[in-house]
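Course exercise 7: structure representation. Students receive a sequence record and must write out the corresponding structure in token form. The form below is the worked example handed out in class, using 5-formyltetrahydrofolate cyclo-ligase (195 residues). Read each field label carefully; the graders check that inputs and outputs are placed in the correct fields and that the protein name is recorded exactly as given.

STUDENT ID: A-19
EXERCISE PROTEIN: 5-formyltetrahydrofolate cyclo-ligase
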Amino acid sequence: MEGMTDAPESQKRALRAELRERRRIRTASEREREGTALTQHLIDLTSDLGARSIAAYLSLPEEPGTRDFVEWACENGIRVLIPVSRADGLLDWAPYDGSDEDEDLLGMPTPTSELLGPIAINSVDLIVVPAASVDRTGMRLGWGRGYFDKTLGSMENCPPVYAVIFDDELVDSVPSERHDQRVDGVVTPSGIVAF
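STUDENT ANSWER:
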């Protein structure tokens, strides 16, 4: 019985390691080209939804880039909330205006503005989340800490949730467990896919 419950977790670990390596070896020119396309698709999605308030994240160098999109949102009067990891596995949210950054307890970039509690995300029109991979049913494979699964799973009236991934990270299926949360779509360098 124990081996059965461990199967998805070990499959996830192996897949995450492979995806991390693929991201690591992307060239600077690939990243730049893909980043420009991603930014435009994220702007299109936000505009199409008429979102005036979003929850997003500040991408790390090897991740599909969200920073130009977040900057665009700030410049266009869209309220942006950025996650801040807590020791209890929940996410606080902080308003972001494109200025000062710090790091949270996991080393993720976060704003230095006032911390809002976990329920602050309930007021947004669109949630943009990181992912390692997403399958064609919308099942999201995160990076293994469960922060976004807990957040999305606890929301009563969840707005559209889109994961930002590279094209080759949209796959036929990903290993999943009961606590894993689906997303409504993905944004990739090639476009927007809604499930």
